[in-house]
Amino acid sequence: MFLIVFSSAALLSQSEEVVLETNEEGHRILIDGNPFFIKGINWDYFPIGTTYNFDFWTQSDDFIEKALDYEMGLLQKMGINAIRQYTGVPARWISHIYEEYGIFTILNHPFGRYGLEINNQWKSRTVYKDDLVREKLLKELEGLTQSYRNTPGLLLYLLGNENNYGLFWEGSETEDIPLDPFLKESEAAALYKLFNEAARLIESIDPYHPVAFCNGDLQYLDLIQRYCPDIDILGTNMYRGESFGDTFDEVKKTTGKAILFTEFGADAYNMITGVEDSDSQARYFFYNWKEIFENAYGYGKNGNCIGGFTFQFSDGWWKYGQTRNLSVHDNIASWSNGGYIEDYTEGRNNMNEEWFGICAKGHPDAYGHYELIPRKAYYVIKDINKYKLFDGNYDIDELNEFFNRIEESHFIYRAKSK
Questions:
Q1: Within a domain: residue 337?
Q2: Strand partners for 36
Q3: pLDDT tens sequence across 207-217
Q4: Angle between helices 278-294 and 376-384 (to 10 degrees)
Q5: Is 168 helix (H, G, I), strand (E, B) or coil?
Q6: Which domain holds residue 209?
Q7: Strand partners, 93
Q8: β-strand 154-159 against 211-216: which pairing, if any?
């Protein structure tokens, strides 16, 4: 057995040791000697009528505290122990969320995913072979790490967000996944080399927090194995329907890394019926989380999964169109995915970016706060989170019985292919 040791500041500012443990049983995180499985969610705060440039963290302290008390309270009741946030959140609010609600933050630097300013000129697509790009990103990460390294509540650093897709897509809206792994391979190699260099830089400044990167599905897995030897956690945004398929096997066989699902899930709108479909959304989350739990350390399968982040907490009314129709809940699908069979029709898009929340969103009040209305998926995941994976039993049969009870209590049934 060998241990890869990291650490974070502890609850109430006491030092805790965070360890990525690796042995014949797989990978798991230990915090102060106690096993920790990431039961996370992608979280943000965008009132209806705002877009991606709304900055929650520049609002007044009173505004932020009220919003956090409401939303983190819902997450705490749901059993969430980590949220994914992009850079820009002040360190003091990371600590506040941790100390008040016991919820860690995974801090996500976009790593040029949505463009960079180079020599006072905005470049919408980042070219990672460019020396100026390399210099700028590493300098940003050096400053970021210096600023956050002693922050209570920081769990780990995450680099990028599907940057491999960014090699193809010109804009920031989600499109169909590029399927040809050989397209842009030289640019992809430069990206993964820079990911690895960035991870080494972060760990040289802050050896007490793990570093992961966020890939789009498992594209370029061979390049990841070749060029990212110093990154121990492979994060992936994956939307494959009810099952992740051979993901756990492939990651174990090809890279040997721990896998973290940085995004996964389903939208709550059915393009065929033209109405909200919270039942099917809940079903996808149920089977996805079941596979994640089954592949946790010690349960006899691959043992390489350290957790996941549900996508996402609340609907993003700005996602389609980005800057127009901000007060309209668009039901226009922007990409196609055959894994979601209820509303899939060949040749038509079926994935609705504005409907991925496990909570629906109400209109803001006079102060800018809004109400959330939990969908069925909220309650299903809440029940799933009650299971204590590392209670000493590591009993796969007990785990399956637990999920069977949830399946029956929430009337969850597998979808049938058309």
A1: yes
A2: 29
A3: 889 999 999 99
A4: 20
A5: coil
A6: 37-409
A7: none
A8: parallel
Within-domain flag for 14: no
pLDDT per residue over 285-311, tens digit each?
999 999 999 999 999 999 999 999 999
In this structure, what CATH number is given to the domain that contains residue 99? 3.20.20.80
CA distance 129 to 106: 27
Residue of 273, 270, 294 whose CA lies nearest to 281? 270
Asked if residue 10 belongs to a domain, the reply is: no
Q: Please give the structure tokens belonging to residue 293.
A: 């739990």
What's the rounded Cα separation, in Å, for the pair 293 and 221? Answer: 23
Distances (CA, A) of 197 to 159, 194, 204, 229, 414: 11, 5, 11, 10, 43
Q: Which of 223, 222, 295 is nearest to 259 (CA)?
A: 295
CA 232 from centre of chain: 17
Tell me if 32 is assigned to some domain.
Answer: no
Integer CA distances (angstroms), 362 to 61, 317, 346, 377, in order: 22, 11, 33, 18
Reported as a single tens digit per residue, the pLDDT across 23-54 is 999 999 988 889 999 999 999 999 999 999 99
Say how far apart CA 334 and CA 356 lie, in whole Å.
13
Q: What is the pLDDT of residue 14?
A: 41
Confirm if 253 and 218 have CB atoms less than 8 A apart.
no
Give yes or no for a contact between 111 and 211, defined as CB atoms under 8 angstroms apart: no
Q: Judge residue 270's burial from the number of C-beta atoms within 10 Å of its C-beta, 0-12 exposed, 13-18 middle, 19 or more buried.
A: buried
* CA diameter of the chain: 59
Domain count across the chain: 1
